[in-house]
Protein backbone atom coordinates (compact mmCIF):
# COMPACT_ATOMS: atom_id res chain seq x y z
CA UNK A 1 0.00 0.00 0.00
CA UNK A 2 1.24 3.50 -0.87
CA UNK A 3 -0.41 5.09 2.18
CA UNK A 4 -1.15 3.85 5.66
CA UNK A 5 -4.07 6.23 6.08
CA UNK A 6 -6.05 8.42 3.68
CA UNK A 7 -8.37 11.18 4.89
CA UNK A 8 -10.52 11.57 1.81
CA UNK A 9 -12.68 14.38 0.52
CA UNK A 10 -12.57 16.73 3.48
CA UNK A 11 -12.53 20.53 3.56
CA UNK A 12 -8.90 21.14 4.49
CA UNK A 13 -8.52 24.30 6.56
CA UNK A 14 -5.58 26.63 5.99
CA UNK A 15 -5.16 28.56 9.27
CA UNK A 16 -2.97 31.26 7.73
CA UNK A 17 -5.33 32.08 4.85
CA UNK A 18 -8.41 31.17 6.94
CA UNK A 19 -9.75 29.32 3.92
CA UNK A 20 -10.86 25.84 2.90
CA UNK A 21 -10.08 23.59 -0.05
CA UNK A 22 -11.47 20.15 -0.80
CA UNK A 23 -8.56 17.70 -0.80
CA UNK A 24 -7.32 14.30 0.33
CA UNK A 25 -4.62 13.93 2.97
CA UNK A 26 -2.40 10.85 2.78
CA UNK A 27 -0.34 9.67 5.76
CA UNK A 28 2.65 7.34 5.88
CA UNK A 29 4.96 6.56 8.82
CA UNK A 30 3.40 9.20 11.04
CA UNK A 31 3.80 12.05 8.56
CA UNK A 32 1.73 13.66 5.85
CA UNK A 33 2.97 12.19 2.57
CA UNK A 34 0.60 13.87 0.10
CA UNK A 35 -2.15 16.49 0.01
CA UNK A 36 -4.15 16.76 -3.18
CA UNK A 37 -7.42 16.09 -4.97
CA UNK A 38 -8.61 12.61 -5.87
CA UNK A 39 -5.83 10.50 -4.39
CA UNK A 40 -6.41 6.80 -5.03
CA UNK A 41 -8.30 5.21 -2.17
CA UNK A 42 -7.26 1.71 -3.23
CA UNK A 43 -3.65 2.67 -2.45
CA UNK A 44 -4.46 3.25 1.24
CA UNK A 45 -4.50 0.64 3.97
CA UNK A 46 -7.20 2.60 5.83
CA UNK A 47 -9.55 5.29 4.52
CA UNK A 48 -11.48 7.92 6.46
CA UNK A 49 -14.34 9.39 4.45
CA UNK A 50 -14.25 13.06 5.45
CA UNK A 51 -16.82 14.25 2.90
CA UNK A 52 -18.60 17.28 4.32
CA UNK A 53 -16.18 17.44 7.27
CA UNK A 54 -13.40 19.87 8.18
CA UNK A 55 -9.78 18.71 8.28
CA UNK A 56 -7.52 20.93 10.38
CA UNK A 57 -4.07 20.78 11.90
CA UNK A 58 -4.40 19.21 15.34
CA UNK A 59 -6.17 21.60 17.69
CA UNK A 60 -4.36 23.38 20.53
CA UNK A 61 -5.88 23.95 23.96
CA UNK A 62 -3.70 26.81 25.12
CA UNK A 63 -4.77 26.84 28.79
CA UNK A 64 -5.17 23.61 30.74
CA UNK A 65 -3.93 22.15 34.02
CA UNK A 66 -2.42 18.68 33.64
CA UNK A 67 0.09 18.31 36.51
CA UNK A 68 -1.86 15.19 37.36
CA UNK A 69 -1.64 13.71 40.88
CA UNK A 70 0.52 16.61 42.12
CA UNK A 71 -1.62 19.67 41.48
CA UNK A 72 -4.81 18.19 42.89
CA UNK A 73 -7.27 19.80 40.46
CA UNK A 74 -5.25 18.94 37.35
CA UNK A 75 -6.66 16.49 34.83
CA UNK A 76 -4.96 13.50 33.29
CA UNK A 77 -3.72 14.88 29.94
CA UNK A 78 -5.48 12.12 28.00
CA UNK A 79 -8.81 12.23 29.80
CA UNK A 80 -10.66 14.27 27.15
CA UNK A 81 -9.43 12.37 24.09
CA UNK A 82 -10.51 11.98 21.42
CA UNK A 83 -13.63 14.12 21.91
CA UNK A 84 -11.67 17.37 22.44
CA UNK A 85 -9.85 17.05 19.11
CA UNK A 86 -6.62 18.35 20.67
CA UNK A 87 -3.11 17.21 19.78
CA UNK A 88 -1.36 19.95 21.79
CA UNK A 89 -2.07 20.92 25.40
CA UNK A 90 -0.43 23.85 27.17
CA UNK A 91 -0.38 23.86 30.96
CA UNK A 92 -0.89 27.32 32.43
CA UNK A 93 1.30 27.60 35.48
CA UNK A 94 0.62 24.45 37.49
CA UNK A 95 4.35 24.05 38.08
CA UNK A 96 7.11 26.47 39.04
CA UNK A 97 10.88 26.22 38.95
CA UNK A 98 11.02 23.97 42.04
CA UNK A 99 8.39 21.53 40.79
CA UNK A 100 8.93 21.59 37.03
CA UNK A 101 11.44 18.71 36.93
CA UNK A 102 8.81 16.35 38.33
CA UNK A 103 6.19 17.74 35.93
CA UNK A 104 8.49 17.13 32.98
CA UNK A 105 9.66 13.68 34.00
CA UNK A 106 6.32 12.20 35.02
CA UNK A 107 3.84 13.99 32.73
CA UNK A 108 5.17 16.10 29.88
CA UNK A 109 7.48 13.49 28.40
CA UNK A 110 5.11 10.53 28.80
CA UNK A 111 2.67 11.17 25.99
CA UNK A 112 2.34 11.14 22.22
CA UNK A 113 0.53 14.45 22.57
CA UNK A 114 2.55 17.65 22.35
CA UNK A 115 2.58 18.83 25.98
CA UNK A 116 3.97 22.28 26.74
CA UNK A 117 3.82 24.67 29.68
CA UNK A 118 3.82 28.20 30.99
CA UNK A 119 6.06 28.24 34.07
CA UNK A 120 4.61 29.89 37.15
CA UNK A 121 6.72 32.75 38.52
CA UNK A 122 6.20 31.16 41.95
CA UNK A 123 8.78 28.39 42.28
CA UNK A 124 6.08 26.11 43.73
CA UNK A 125 3.47 26.81 41.07
CA UNK A 126 -0.20 26.33 41.92
CA UNK A 127 0.20 23.28 44.12
CA UNK A 128 -1.78 25.05 46.84
CA UNK A 129 -4.99 24.64 44.77
CA UNK A 130 -6.30 21.84 46.94
CA UNK A 131 -10.05 22.62 47.17
CA UNK A 132 -10.25 20.26 50.13
CA UNK A 133 -12.90 20.72 52.85
CA UNK A 134 -11.41 22.36 55.92
CA UNK A 135 -8.18 23.32 54.18
CA UNK A 136 -7.85 27.11 53.80
CA UNK A 137 -7.14 28.60 50.39
CA UNK A 138 -3.52 29.65 49.93
CA UNK A 139 -2.40 31.55 46.87
CA UNK A 140 1.07 31.03 45.46
CA UNK A 141 2.16 34.66 46.00
CA UNK A 142 0.95 35.01 49.58
CA UNK A 143 4.59 34.47 50.53
CA UNK A 144 6.69 36.52 48.12
CA UNK A 145 9.82 34.55 49.01
CA UNK A 146 8.60 31.99 46.49
CA UNK A 147 8.61 34.57 43.66
CA UNK A 148 12.13 34.10 42.37
CA UNK A 149 13.38 35.53 39.10
CA UNK A 150 16.80 33.77 38.88
CA UNK A 151 15.26 30.33 39.50
CA UNK A 152 12.55 31.03 36.92
CA UNK A 153 15.08 32.14 34.32
CA UNK A 154 17.31 29.13 34.96
CA UNK A 155 14.41 26.69 34.63
CA UNK A 156 13.31 28.22 31.33
CA UNK A 157 16.81 28.17 29.88
CA UNK A 158 17.17 24.50 30.78
CA UNK A 159 13.73 23.50 29.41
CA UNK A 160 13.08 25.51 26.27
CA UNK A 161 11.79 22.37 24.59
CA UNK A 162 8.78 22.40 26.94
CA UNK A 163 8.39 25.89 28.46
CA UNK A 164 6.73 28.47 26.21
CA UNK A 165 6.18 31.35 28.62
CA UNK A 166 5.63 32.53 32.20
CA UNK A 167 2.34 32.48 34.11
CA UNK A 168 1.47 35.09 36.71
CA UNK A 169 -1.85 35.55 38.47
CA UNK A 170 -3.29 38.96 39.33
CA UNK A 171 -5.77 37.24 41.61
CA UNK A 172 -8.24 39.12 43.80
CA UNK A 173 -6.46 40.29 46.93
CA UNK A 174 -2.94 40.30 45.51
CA UNK A 175 -1.32 42.82 47.83
CA UNK A 176 1.20 44.29 45.41
CA UNK A 177 2.53 43.95 41.86
CA UNK A 178 5.81 42.24 42.80
CA UNK A 179 4.89 38.91 41.08
CA UNK A 180 3.87 40.76 37.89
CA UNK A 181 7.06 42.80 37.78
CA UNK A 182 9.05 39.62 38.46
CA UNK A 183 7.30 37.76 35.65
CA UNK A 184 8.01 40.58 33.20
CA UNK A 185 11.65 40.74 34.27
CA UNK A 186 12.11 37.00 33.77
CA UNK A 187 10.24 37.13 30.46
CA UNK A 188 12.42 39.93 29.15
CA UNK A 189 15.56 38.04 30.10
CA UNK A 190 14.43 34.82 28.42
CA UNK A 191 12.49 36.25 25.47
CA UNK A 192 9.19 34.54 26.25
CA UNK A 193 5.67 35.95 26.74
CA UNK A 194 3.77 36.11 29.99
CA UNK A 195 0.21 34.96 30.52
CA UNK A 196 -1.61 36.98 33.17
CA UNK A 197 -4.67 35.80 35.07
CA UNK A 198 -7.22 38.58 35.54
CA UNK A 199 -9.79 38.92 38.32
CA UNK A 200 -11.65 41.49 40.39
CA UNK A 201 -9.49 44.21 41.99
CA UNK A 202 -7.33 44.64 43.86
CA UNK A 203 -5.14 44.94 41.89
CA UNK A 204 -6.85 46.95 39.18
CA UNK A 205 -6.30 46.30 35.47
CA UNK A 206 -5.33 49.96 35.20
CA UNK A 207 -2.26 49.08 37.31
CA UNK A 208 -1.00 46.09 35.34
CA UNK A 209 -2.41 45.98 31.80
CA UNK A 210 -0.22 48.96 30.77
CA UNK A 211 2.83 46.91 31.81
CA UNK A 212 2.14 44.16 29.27
CA UNK A 213 4.18 43.91 26.08
CA UNK A 214 3.25 42.89 22.54
CA UNK A 215 2.77 39.11 22.52
CA UNK A 216 1.85 38.86 26.20
CA UNK A 217 -1.49 37.16 26.91
CA UNK A 218 -4.46 38.23 29.02
CA UNK A 219 -6.51 35.24 30.15
CA UNK A 220 -10.08 35.06 31.51
CA UNK A 221 -11.06 37.93 29.23
CA UNK A 222 -14.81 37.42 29.82
CA UNK A 223 -14.88 37.46 33.61
CA UNK A 224 -17.80 39.55 34.95
CA UNK A 225 -16.33 41.07 38.06
CA UNK A 226 -15.57 44.78 38.66
CA UNK A 227 -12.77 46.11 36.52
CA UNK A 228 -13.28 43.52 33.79
CA UNK A 229 -13.57 43.83 30.03
CA UNK A 230 -17.03 45.45 30.07
CA UNK A 231 -17.33 48.68 32.04
CA UNK A 232 -20.40 49.99 33.88
CA UNK A 233 -21.72 51.59 30.69
CA UNK A 234 -21.65 48.25 28.89
CA UNK A 235 -18.66 49.26 26.76
CA UNK A 236 -15.24 47.69 26.19
CA UNK A 237 -12.93 49.03 28.89
CA UNK A 238 -10.29 51.36 27.48
CA UNK A 239 -7.39 49.53 29.17
CA UNK A 240 -8.28 46.39 27.22
CA UNK A 241 -8.56 48.26 23.93
CA UNK A 242 -5.22 49.94 24.48
CA UNK A 243 -3.56 46.63 25.35
CA UNK A 244 -4.89 44.95 22.21
CA UNK A 245 -3.82 47.87 20.03
CA UNK A 246 -0.22 47.44 21.10
CA UNK A 247 -0.25 43.70 20.45
CA UNK A 248 -1.35 42.07 23.71
CA UNK A 249 -3.33 38.89 22.99
CA UNK A 250 -6.73 38.09 24.50
CA UNK A 251 -7.52 34.52 25.58
CA UNK A 252 -10.75 33.00 26.87
CA UNK A 253 -9.47 30.71 29.66
CA UNK A 254 -13.13 29.79 30.05
CA UNK A 255 -13.09 27.89 33.35
CA UNK A 256 -16.15 28.21 35.57
CA UNK A 257 -16.49 31.56 37.37
CA UNK A 258 -14.14 33.23 34.88
CA UNK A 259 -16.71 33.53 32.09
CA UNK A 260 -20.09 35.25 31.93
CA UNK A 261 -22.16 34.81 28.76
CA UNK A 262 -23.45 38.39 28.95
CA UNK A 263 -19.90 39.75 28.97
CA UNK A 264 -18.92 37.42 26.13
CA UNK A 265 -21.91 38.42 24.02
CA UNK A 266 -21.33 42.14 24.49
CA UNK A 267 -17.66 41.73 23.64
CA UNK A 268 -18.21 39.75 20.45
CA UNK A 269 -21.04 42.04 19.32
CA UNK A 270 -18.61 44.92 19.86
CA UNK A 271 -15.98 43.25 17.68
CA UNK A 272 -13.74 42.29 20.60
CA UNK A 273 -13.29 38.59 19.85
CA UNK A 274 -10.65 36.36 21.46
CA UNK A 275 -7.32 35.78 19.77
CA UNK A 276 -7.11 32.38 21.46
CA UNK A 277 -9.88 30.00 22.51
CA UNK A 278 -8.95 27.86 25.52
CA UNK A 279 -10.61 26.09 28.42
CA UNK A 280 -8.64 26.38 31.70
CA UNK A 281 -10.08 22.92 32.25
CA UNK A 282 -9.62 21.26 35.66
CA UNK A 283 -11.42 18.56 37.62
CA UNK A 284 -13.84 21.01 39.25
CA UNK A 285 -15.07 22.68 36.04
CA UNK A 286 -14.88 20.01 33.32
CA UNK A 287 -18.55 19.15 33.86
CA UNK A 288 -20.95 20.72 33.19
CA UNK A 289 -19.42 24.07 32.26
CA UNK A 290 -16.24 23.57 30.26
CA UNK A 291 -16.18 20.02 28.85
CA UNK A 292 -13.48 20.64 26.22
CA UNK A 293 -12.15 23.22 23.76
CA UNK A 294 -14.69 22.32 21.04
CA UNK A 295 -17.59 22.83 23.44
CA UNK A 296 -16.00 26.17 24.35
CA UNK A 297 -15.55 27.15 20.71
CA UNK A 298 -19.18 26.30 19.99
CA UNK A 299 -20.23 28.92 22.56
CA UNK A 300 -18.25 31.56 20.67
CA UNK A 301 -19.96 30.51 17.44
CA UNK A 302 -23.33 30.88 19.17
CA UNK A 303 -22.62 34.57 19.83
CA UNK A 304 -21.49 35.22 16.28
CA UNK A 305 -17.77 34.51 16.02
CA UNK A 306 -17.13 33.26 12.45
CA UNK A 307 -16.06 29.64 11.98
CA UNK A 308 -12.78 30.57 10.25
CA UNK A 309 -11.74 32.80 13.16
CA UNK A 310 -12.82 30.17 15.68
CA UNK A 311 -10.59 27.57 14.00
CA UNK A 312 -7.67 30.02 13.77
CA UNK A 313 -8.05 30.69 17.52
CA UNK A 314 -7.37 26.99 18.18
CA UNK A 315 -4.54 26.56 15.64
CA UNK A 316 -2.40 29.34 14.18
CA UNK A 317 -3.03 31.98 16.85
CA UNK A 318 -1.93 29.91 19.86
CA UNK A 319 0.91 28.38 17.82
CA UNK A 320 2.27 31.83 16.99
CA UNK A 321 1.79 32.99 20.58
CA UNK A 322 4.21 30.22 21.61
CA UNK A 323 6.57 30.92 18.69
CA UNK A 324 5.81 27.42 17.42
CA UNK A 325 3.99 28.04 14.12
CA UNK A 326 4.82 24.51 12.96
CA UNK A 327 2.18 23.20 15.36
CA UNK A 328 -0.51 24.68 13.13
CA UNK A 329 0.84 23.48 9.81
CA UNK A 330 -0.75 20.75 7.73
CA UNK A 331 1.72 20.16 4.94
CA UNK A 332 3.48 17.44 3.01
CA UNK A 333 6.38 16.09 5.04
CA UNK A 334 4.96 17.47 8.28
CA UNK A 335 3.74 15.51 11.29
CA UNK A 336 0.35 13.82 10.95
CA UNK A 337 -1.37 15.46 13.92
CA UNK A 338 -4.81 16.12 12.48
CA UNK A 339 -8.34 16.82 13.68
CA UNK A 340 -11.39 15.97 11.58
CA UNK A 341 -14.39 18.06 12.63
CA UNK A 342 -18.10 18.13 11.95
CA UNK A 343 -20.22 21.25 12.29
CA UNK A 344 -23.25 19.53 13.75
CA UNK A 345 -26.51 21.38 13.07
CA UNK A 346 -28.60 21.10 16.21
CA UNK A 347 -30.49 23.22 18.67
CA UNK A 348 -28.39 23.45 21.81
CA UNK A 349 -28.54 25.41 25.06
CA UNK A 350 -25.32 26.23 26.92
CA UNK A 351 -25.26 27.25 30.59
CA UNK A 352 -22.72 29.37 32.43
CA UNK A 353 -21.75 29.42 36.10
CA UNK A 354 -23.89 32.51 36.76
CA UNK A 355 -27.17 31.00 35.61
CA UNK A 356 -27.24 32.50 32.12
CA UNK A 357 -28.33 30.48 29.11
CA UNK A 358 -27.06 30.74 25.55
CA UNK A 359 -28.89 29.24 22.59
CA UNK A 360 -26.93 27.86 19.66
CA UNK A 361 -27.86 26.19 16.38
CA UNK A 362 -24.64 24.29 15.76
CA UNK A 363 -21.61 22.90 17.53
CA UNK A 364 -18.20 21.58 16.64
CA UNK A 365 -17.63 17.85 17.17
CA UNK A 366 -14.49 15.79 16.70
CA UNK A 367 -15.19 12.90 14.36
CA UNK A 368 -11.62 11.62 14.07
CA UNK A 369 -8.41 12.50 15.86
CA UNK A 370 -5.08 11.49 14.35
CA UNK A 371 -1.94 11.66 16.49
CA UNK A 372 1.42 10.78 14.96
CA UNK A 373 -0.47 9.17 12.08
CA UNK A 374 -2.60 6.92 14.31
CA UNK A 375 -6.37 7.22 14.58
CA UNK A 376 -7.33 7.60 18.24
CA UNK A 377 -10.24 5.42 19.29
CA UNK A 378 -12.52 6.25 22.21
CA UNK A 379 -10.82 5.15 25.43
CA UNK A 380 -7.87 3.58 23.63
CA UNK A 381 -5.42 6.45 23.88
CA UNK A 382 -5.71 6.81 27.60
CA UNK A 383 -5.60 3.06 28.19
CA UNK A 384 -2.43 2.65 26.16
CA UNK A 385 -0.59 5.78 27.17
CA UNK A 386 -1.63 5.98 30.82
CA UNK A 387 0.67 3.06 31.61
CA UNK A 388 3.54 5.54 31.23
CA UNK A 389 2.08 7.98 33.72
CA UNK A 390 2.35 7.77 37.52
CA UNK A 391 -0.47 6.24 39.50
Structure, described:
With 391 residues, the chain is an alpha/beta fold. It is 22% helix and 28% strand. The protein contains eleven helices and 15 strands. Strands 1, 2, 3, 4, 5, 13, 14 and 15 form an eight-stranded mixed sheet that branches. A seven-stranded parallel sheet has the order 6-7-8-9-10-11-12. Helix 1 links the parallel strand 7 and strand 8 (114-120). Helix 2 (149-158) runs parallel beside helix 3 (178-190). It starts with a strand and ends in a 6-residue tail after the last helix.
Summarize the structure.
With 391 residues, the protein is of the alpha/beta class.
Main attributes of the structure:
391 residues; alpha/beta; 8-stranded mixed sheet; 7-stranded parallel sheet; 11 helices; 15 strands; 22% helix; globular
What is the terminal-to-terminal distance? 40 Å
What are the secondary-structure elements, in order, as H or E? Answer: EEEEEEEHEHEHEHEHEHHHHHEEEH
Q: What is the overall number of helices?
A: 11
* Spatial shape: globular
Strand content: 25-35%
As residue ranges, the low-confidence spans are none
Helix/strand/pairing class, anyone? Answer: alpha/beta
- DSSP summary, beta strand count: 15
Q: What about the largest sheet? A: 8 strands, mixed
Q: Radius of gyration over alpha carbons? A: 21 Å
